[in-house]
Amino acid sequence: MTGAVLLALLPVVLLTALGLTLRRRRFLAESFWPQAERLGYFVLLPSLFFHSLATARVEGVPVGALALTLILSTVIVAGLVVGLRPLIRVDGPAFTSVFQGSVRFNNYVGVTLAAGLFGTQGIALAAICNAAIVPTVNILCVLVFARHGAARLSPRGVARQLVTNPLIVSSLGGMAFQLLGWGIPVGLEPAMRTLGAASLPIGLLCVGAALDFTGARAWVGPVMSASLMKFLAMPAATLAVALSLGLHGPALTTALLFQVLPTASSAYILARQLGGDAPLMAGITAVQTVLALVAMPLVLIGLSVFVLMG
Questions:
Q1: How does it sit in the membrane (predicted)?
Q2: Whole-model pTM?
Q3: For residue 252, which of 297, 298, 303 has the smallest C-alpha distance?
Q4: CB 258 within 8 A of CB 126
């Protein structure tokens, strides 16, 4: 299981490094990167979320307990980060990056891991994780951006962001198709699947391209704050809630895996779109991806020991 985790994370590290190399060597025009970010945010990621949720097979999955575990643990950690805001000595835009780094997750890696570990059941479990966490995280992040981002939003602006956010809309749309039993039209389904698959390499290349280590010393505090929340507080909260709801087996393992995933490339794209600290967000994403190579196997080992002792 630990080997599967490392193999799933390796492409993430390599693609991020490739983006950094391409940008530094000026292989592509500077104007390419903002357009690629826009494409990912408005087209590729929404296609991934909608398709994965609309086509998931969820038979035999403890949908209620799994979804509630993920939503409650995410809200708990989000509240903890906001409560600790005075102790995190950064400006508003930088705080939005710390917040995203604490709660956002790389669902590409999550789906790959779940499928590799549990086969078709893992794909269904991953779909429920996405359905529960994606809308929750994006709503929380939009609210934090409205309060702390460079572009402060009025209540009407917050409402507009929530109802027009492509990640939220696509997630809710995919869930609606799933609940109503609708299928994606035959000609459209493979196109959406292909667009969704393209979101991973494009997003990670953009993250790598945005890396700028000239201010790395100033990142140490924010990066550590976000990573402690992501790799310690989040799995602890998830395990506590899961046990209280009686979640066990592959569903518990998948819930923990998703909640200890490193921050996704979509966090950087959202920071660029909503007035966050995008360079810091790219740094948090890159550092967490590397830390996850250690943190995720440790969580799995800890879960195994916990089960044996129990």
A1: Multi-pass membrane protein
A2: 0.83
A3: 303
A4: yes
DSSP characters over 139-160: HHHHHHHHHHSSS---HHHHHH
The span from the CA of 218 to the CA of 85, in Å, is 17
Sign of CA dihedral 223, 107, 130, 281: positive
Using the 8-state DSSP alphabet, how is residue 214 labeled?
Answer: G
Using the 8-state DSSP alphabet, how is residue 256 labeled?
H
**The domain that contains 110 carries what CATH number?**
1.20.1530.20
From residue 246, alpha-carbon distances to 158, 240, 301 in Å are 36, 10, 20
Which residue, 237, 231, 234, 238, is CA-closest to 253?
Answer: 238
Q: Which amino acid is at 172?
A: L
Domain tally for the chain?
1
Q: 70 φ, ψ to 5°?
A: -70, -45
Alpha carbon of 304 to those of 111, 118, 260, 299, 310: distances in Å?
A: 21, 16, 15, 9, 10
Written as one string, the DSSP assignment of 54-112 is HS---TT--HHHHHHHHHHHHHHHHHHHHHTGGGS---HHHHHHHHHHHH---HHHHHH
Task: DSSP for 263-280, please give it.
Answer: PPHHHHHHHHHHT--HHH
Distance CA 301, CA 297 (A): 6
Percentage of the residues of the chain whose pLDDT score is greater than 90: 37
Range of the domain at 240: 2-309
**pLDDT score, position 136:** 92
Short-list 221, 228, 223, CA closest to 211:
223
Sequence-separated (6 or more) residues with CB below 8 Å from residue 203: 40, 44, 45, 264, 265, 266, 268, 269
Predicted local distance difference test score (pLDDT) of residue 2: 63
Averaged pLDDT for residues 136-161: 83
Q: Which of 30, 8, 12 is nearest to 209 (CA)?
A: 30
- Provide the token pair at 256: 């923990």
